[in-house]
Amino acid sequence: MSLTAVIILIGIGLLLVLVEFLVLPGANIPGLIGIIFILTGIYFGYNYFGTPKGHYILLGTFLLFLIAMVLALRSKTWKTLVLKSSISSKMENTDVQFVKPGDKGMAVTRLAPIGTVVVNEKSFEGKSGHKFIDPNTPVEVIKVNGNQLIVKPIE
Q: What's this model's pTM, rounded to 2 decimal places?
């Protein structure tokens, strides 16, 4: 085995690890194959060229991997992949101010645990805690939490 073949194995392995890290995170297949290629290249380096040159190959691989990761993290690739916008709007509470704990209404959709309820002839987002409430079930408002009504079924 020649030194060129060892360098090609390690280079392909590093490329696959970078693809896993930057392009296909979570896919795991390119990263695993890349690690296998790198370890195979290092193994062949030790096996065919002896311990001193194997150490140089190992050190070179480590430094090349470190440099590649630093350059990949410093590049502008992350800036294009990261969401920069934020939601700054807020829903108004104008209708919720007319609803008080103890008011009665009806579940329009299934609350599992969140759905739509009608209280005082207006629709609101309702939350039932940890219970499921079927549609057309009478409900009672327990608490008004922002725009959300915490409700329980009327037994």
A: 0.50
